[in-house]
């Protein structure tokens, strides 16, 4: 997770973060600002819904403050999403297996839509054949080699 404010700065007020951690924080702040705009929600409204101070939200967006797990949970609840989805949306966590799968299916559909009806039928038959394949045994029985 992100470091807390006291972990962010040393006693001289210098940033202690590595560039990678700082970049993640900026991404989170940028994402949050964009999400608020997308939803038509103000920082004050988010703060009220999340039970946080307006200055906390402002500092997160301005990248002057680290984000604790408790803050992430509060913001996620206020936005009516899961903390996991919030972290995936901000790029802190990788996409879920399901999201990657859905993206792959969308790419296949994009290509399939460009085909003529006869080719779409062939593609459907090929997909059925592939989905029935178990370790290549069914395809080998049908005389198809991989």
Strand fraction band? Answer: under 5%
Number of domains: 2
Oligomer: single chain
| Major beta sheet summary | none
Task: Report the top-level CATH class of the largest domain.
Answer: Mainly Alpha
CATH fold group of the largest domain: 434 Repressor (Amino-terminal Domain)
Q: What is the CATH architecture assignment of the largest domain?
A: Orthogonal Bundle
How many DSSP-defined strands? 0
Question: Structural class of the secondary elements?
Answer: mainly alpha
Quick one: overall form?
Answer: elongated
Write the element-wise H/E pattern from the N-terminal end onward: HHHHHHHHH
Low confidence ranges: 3-23
Per DSSP, the total helix count is 9
CA-to-CA gap between the ends? Answer: 45 Å
What this model shows, in words?
The chain is mainly α and 146 residues long. It has 2 domains: 5-89, 434 Repressor (Amino-terminal Domain) (Orthogonal Bundle), CATH 1.10.260; 97-141. It has helices at 5-8, 19-39, 43-50, 54-61, 69-78, 83-89, 97-113, 117-131, 137-141. Helix 3 (43-50) packs across helix 4 and helix 5 (69-78) packs across helix 6 (83-89). The chain is elongated, with a radius of gyration of 24 Å. It starts with a helix and ends in a 5-residue tail after the last helix. Mean pLDDT is 78; it is low at 3-23.
């Amino acid at each position: 997770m992100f470091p807390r404010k006291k972990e962010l700065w040393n006693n001289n007020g210098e940033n202690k973060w590595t560039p990678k951690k700082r970049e993640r924080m900026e991404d989170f702040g940028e994402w949050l600002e964009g999400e608020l705009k997308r939803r038509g929600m103000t920082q004050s409204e988010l703060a009220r819904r999340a039970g946080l101070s307006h200055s906390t939200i402002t500092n997160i967006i301005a990248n002057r403050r680290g984000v604790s797990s408790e803050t992430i949970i509060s913001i996620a609840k206020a936005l009516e999403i899961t903390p996991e989805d919030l972290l995936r949306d901000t790029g802190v966590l990788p996409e879920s297996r399901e999201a990657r799968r859905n993206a792959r299916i969308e790419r296949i559909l994009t290509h399939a839509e460009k085909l003529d009806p006869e080719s779409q039928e062939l593609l459907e038959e090929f997909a059925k054949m592939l989905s029935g394949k178990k370790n290549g045994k069914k395809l080998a029985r049908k005389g198809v080699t991989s």
